[in-house]
Amino acid sequence: MNERPLALLPELLLLAGAVTTLLTGAFLPRDRQWVARLVAAGAMFAAMVATLPAVGERATVYAHSYALDAGTTAARLLIPLAGLLVVGIAAGRVAGNRRETEFSVLTLLAVLGAVLLAGASDLLLLAVAYLLSSVPLVGLAGWGRDRRGAEAALKVYLIGALAGVGLLAGAALLTAVGGGASDYDRLATGLAGAPSAAVAVGVVGVLAGLLFKIGAVPGHFWVPDAVQGASIPAGALLTTVPKLGGLLAAYRLFAVAVPADVVGWPLLVAVLAAVTMTLGNFAAFGQADPRRLLAYSTVAQVGYLLMAVAVAGRAERALPALLVYLAGYAVTNLGAFAVLAAEPHDALDDYRGLARRRPWLAGALAICLLGLVGTPPTAVFAGKLTVFTAAWDGGLAWLVVVAAVNTVASLFYYLRWLAPAYTGGGRWPTTGGRNRTVAAAGAVAAGAALLGAAVAVPWYPLMAQALAR
Question: In whole angstroms, what is the distance from residue 161 CA to residue 159 CA?
Fold first, then answer.
């Protein structure tokens, strides 16, 4: 069984942090709920620190149901970091609110669920992690308890429940035709001799749940409405944390459990990647609300990220490329939402003159939006370059061409937001607060987005070499 409780120390710290945060908030007055927020931040930081001794480990624990490898290690570091940035972005919105502690607890549980998704090496654990990472998203979407939040929560719940049924049905079918084994190691052996049609149906079912989680076509319908209806901090989490766990879960499923010679999943994932990036980019063209623009932007980004999943097991640098892109996307996307939190408006034209009113904020916005395009020397540029290279090496040259065309096209709608910010006389007053925590979160995210390529260039080949051993 290889039962090693301390091997799950980061996950246990996140769980303990959620319980402690809830109890702390329950016994504190409303004006001191910020203490519970500090507890939540401390738990996520502690989980990151507890991950460091396990760097470089390759093993599975608890009957091969949970993997300890580079993907899980990256998730344990990156997802809590994203959670920390979300807590910082939320400081100005949740401070003094009677549900402040609820936001912190739900954030911790969403982070824990995403980490478990990334490390799951068993279909049963994958299903449990899916539920754990989905339920907090519903609560976060409706956290504001207004009409728009209620609509956002309902859409996340209904589409998530439907996709969850598909995941459970697909997991059951794959387990049945795979000889009764649900862990990925034995499942791969069992599926090698299983009927291709049954395996294909099971893969589509499981993939349906993961596509909802990452916001890819056809499970993307909830993303724009949920992000627009939820609070800005909740929207930042919805477009980041589930994507990190879901994409790593999809990569592990296809790289380990489903043989490509039994069912042609690489072509299916490649087509989904092309459709997702194209739909996300072209749907963003006509958006006037910055939240909806970022929502469709994240759909497009998932399309690029799926390129690495499409060549899982066929390109040796697919996983390090995926990790580099995920890291760059996370900090860049959260930086854009930090600008929204500091200067919330419902229309792109309302940012006219932002560079004169708040130049540092306009600078952060430029870094993050141009970073999402993939402009050198940003972190997303390093991610796109590595993912495109991995896809080319994996035989998907046509998909690289599609992605390159989409990248150029995406520049249009990001400039639609930047152009007003750097023109005009600034007739609109500042509506956001001057919360220092929000400012710090935005500065950290923008700085990481700008300097990410400098870090990724030397780190990527070393990581690829280590994973190839």
Answer: 5
Residue-wise pLDDT for 112-152, tens only, equals 999 999 999 999 999 999 999 999 999 999 998 888 889 99
The 3-state DSSP class for residue 60 equals: strand
Measured CA angle at 114 (ends 108, 116), to 5 deg: 105
Instruction: Show Cβ contacts of residue 85 under 8 Å, excluding neighbours closer than 6 positions.
Output: 236, 331, 334, 338, 441, 444, 445
pLDDT number for residue 456: 63
Question: Among 202, 212, 203, which residue's Cα sits nearest to residue 247?
Answer: 212
DSSP result, 284-295: HTT--SHHHHHH
Cα–Cα dist 156/106, whole Å: 15
Neighbours of 393 (CB within 10 A): 16
Length of the chain: 469
Q: pTM (2 decimals)?
A: 0.94
Q: How many whole angstroms separate alpha carbon 457 and alpha carbon 71?
A: 19
CA distances from 244 to 112, 140, 210, 249 (A): 12, 17, 11, 9
State yes or no: cis peptide before 5, omega within 30 of 0: no
Task: Please give the radius of gyration of the chain, using alpha carbons only, rounded to the nearest integer.
Answer: 21
Q: Between the CA of residue 392 and those of 93, 285, 469, what are the distances in Å?
A: 44, 28, 22
Angle at 42 between CA 329 and CA 227, to 5 degrees: 40
- What DSSP letter does each residue of 71-130 carry, written as one string? HHHHHHHHHHHHHHHHHHHHHHHHTT-TTHHHHHHHHHHHHHHHHHHHHB-BHHHHHHHH
Q: Residue 395 class from Cβ within 10 Å (0-12 exposed, 13-18 middle, 19+ buried)? A: middle
Q: For tokens 């069984």, name the residue.
A: 1
